[in-house]
């Protein structure tokens, strides 16, 4: 068992450069490489770009020229400041283009359905690979390249544009509720490189949209997408993104892909990383690394109105209030599954959402909520979607196609049901 200890970030506070930002810079600098040669080496994620399915997804979505255009723009930069402007503009443009595509704006390029989240994922990796191998005409340290990579990650994921309009009022003067929603990149790509993540697709479909809640009110949804990488979470990407947003939100939900054929509202989140490999094929088995580990709870809980959500008719998939966890009981040594939640004094080994990054984003977001003093006033927690399945006869990645009608229908149904779940949850605020 690999045990790694790390301390990152201030969950709350106003220091100009927080501990989690310093950790983020360290991680980004490491990704930038310790030399020009190291910087040019593609990551595990980027190397998957050369497989046929990602190339087809990019071509059939019209996103196949994104990386090349980014490379041309980079070559025109004659200073770090100009390079940063290029990264900021083109990263933000990629996010906006993916959102517009998902929401039916702009020209149709290619024959992939608009709801597809995969063009954003693979186009971003094309951009990071270009940035990693770029040889500028000016001196660029590994640390500076790492900062550019971090900027590209944030801007192309919508993490820095989760801004709600006005001061709690619509243009007509009527109040509205503010909803923060997050999704994830595709993952388990070595098992099937064609995979899409319905949570990421949902984030694209709902970003910046207005929602009529179940009680007739209005809600504005702002979204972002997160990587499936342990290191980014340890470096504070969740806290950095959500800390400014949660105090102004009326509801938040982290969303990820979960179990087959069902939605789950995860009641309890655990402070444990179970070791499943991430998108860089890195494994971590350890307590979730956060600031102030001496005061770190083993468990956090949802404040979503799970009873109302479970009781509502939100779509074709059943929705469950999932209360199960895995713990080491106080005084014990072996993990025990508890169907009704943790017992006092126990040590976490899996939350309701498991021990992977879906559990971790839920743990971090709800811990941030609590450390900001919002537990009693801000509904928030995690929603697991059904697994997005390919159609019958298209399940084998060795012989299957990158899309099919059932695959698209399943994704659209999941997106619609997440939207309906949010409408119910926001009505209970």
UniProtKB/TrEMBL annotation:
By its UniProt entry, which InterPro entries does this protein fall under? Peptidase_C15-like_sf (IPR036440)
Q: Where is the composition biased (Low complexity)?
A: 27-42
User: Could you name the domain of life of the organism this protein comes from?
Assistant: Bacteria
- The annotated region (Disordered) lies at 27-48, 324-353
The protein's name in its UniProt record:
Pyroglutamyl peptidase
- What is the species listed in this Swiss-Prot or TrEMBL entry? Streptomyces tirandamycinicus
């Amino acid at each position: 068992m690999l045990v790694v200890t790390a301390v990152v970030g201030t969950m709350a506070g106003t220091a100009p450069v927080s501990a989690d930002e310093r950790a983020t810079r360290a991680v980004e600098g490491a990704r930038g490489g310790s030399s020009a040669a190291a910087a040019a080496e593609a990551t595990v994620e980027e190397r998957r770009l050369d497989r046929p399915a990602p190339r087809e997804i990019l071509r059939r979505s019209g996103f196949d020229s994104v990386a090349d255009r980014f490379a041309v723009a980079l070559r025109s930069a004659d200073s770090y400041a100009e390079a940063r402007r290029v990264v900021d503009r083109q990263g933000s443009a990629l996010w906006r283009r993916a959102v517009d595509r998902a929401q039916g704006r702009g020209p149709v390029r290619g024959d992939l359905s608009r709801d597809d989240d995969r063009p954003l994922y693979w186009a971003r990796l094309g951009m990071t690979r270009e940035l990693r191998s770029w040889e500028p005409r000016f001196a660029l340290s590994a640390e500076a390249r790492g900062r550019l990579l971090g900027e590209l990650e944030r801007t192309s994921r919508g993490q820095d544009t989760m801004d709600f309009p006005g001061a709690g009022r619509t243009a007509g003067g009527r109040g509205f509720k503010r909803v923060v929603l997050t999704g994830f990149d595709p993952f388990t790509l070595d098992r099937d490189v064609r995979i899409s993540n319905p949570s990421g697709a949902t984030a694209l479909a709902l970003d910046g949209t207005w929602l009529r809640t179940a009680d007739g009110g209005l809600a504005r949804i702002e979204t972002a997408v997160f990587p499936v990488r342990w290191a980014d979470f340890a470096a504070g990407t969740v806290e950095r993104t959500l800390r400014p947003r949660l105090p102004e939100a009326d509801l938040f939900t982290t969303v990820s892909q979960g179990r087959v054929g069902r939605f789950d509202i995860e009641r309890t989140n655990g402070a444990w990383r179970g070791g499943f490999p991430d998108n860089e094929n890195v494994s971590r088995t350890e307590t979730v690394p956060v600031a102030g580990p001496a005061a770190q709870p083993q468990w956090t809980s949802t404040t979503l109105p799970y009873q109302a959500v479970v009781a509502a008719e939100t779509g074709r998939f059943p929705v469950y209030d999932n209360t199960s966890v895995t713990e080491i009981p106080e005084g014990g040594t072996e993990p025990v599954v508890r169907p009704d939640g943790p017992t006092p004094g126990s040590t976490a080994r899996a939350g309701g959402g498991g021990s992977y990054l879906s559990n971790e984003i839920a743990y971090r977001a709800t811990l941030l909520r609590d450390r900001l003093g919002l537990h009693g006033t801000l509904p928030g927690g995690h929603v697991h979607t059904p697994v997005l399945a390919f159609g019958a006869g298209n399940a084998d990645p060795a012989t299957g196609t990158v899309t099919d009608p059932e695959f698209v229908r399943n994704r659209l149904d999941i997106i619609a049901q997440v939207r309906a779940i949010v409408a119910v949850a926001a009505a209970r605020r």
